[in-house]
């Protein structure tokens, strides 16, 4: 039996964004491909980032993040649009992605992370 390889990366180039669209569209069902690409351009200008969990060569989970600062001047990471592909729920892959982002954020100096409800 082949054990799948998991890899988590920040998406930074157009072919990755195109690969991520089918997963994000499961959460944001009203978002067309053009609207999604336009939104990504605006988000990236604002410093927002998109992370994906690959299961072998396919994206199966996504999360968008942005850096924020609270009233105590503590920097934190705000996680939004966390979604796992419907065919991989409830496999724990979304949890793995969120855990990775938590550890990554701490390494980058975040005091904490918060998740959009």
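^ structure tokens above, recovered residues below v
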């Amino acid at each position: 039996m082949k054990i799948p390889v998991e890899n988590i990366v920040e998406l930074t180039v157009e072919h990755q964004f195109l690969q991520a669209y089918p997963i994000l569209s499961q959460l944001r069902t009203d978002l067309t491909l053009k609207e999604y690409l336009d939104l990504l351009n605006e988000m990236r200008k604002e410093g927002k980032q998109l992370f994906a969990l690959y299961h072998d060569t396919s994206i199966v989970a996504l999360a968008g993040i942005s850096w924020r600062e609270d009233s105590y001047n503590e920097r934190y990471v705000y996680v939004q649009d966390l979604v796992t592909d419907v065919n991989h729920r409830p496999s724990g892959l979304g949890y793995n992605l969120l855990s990775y982002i938590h550890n990554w954020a701490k390494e980058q100096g975040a005091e904490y992370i918060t998740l959009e409800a």
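The mean pLDDT is 91.
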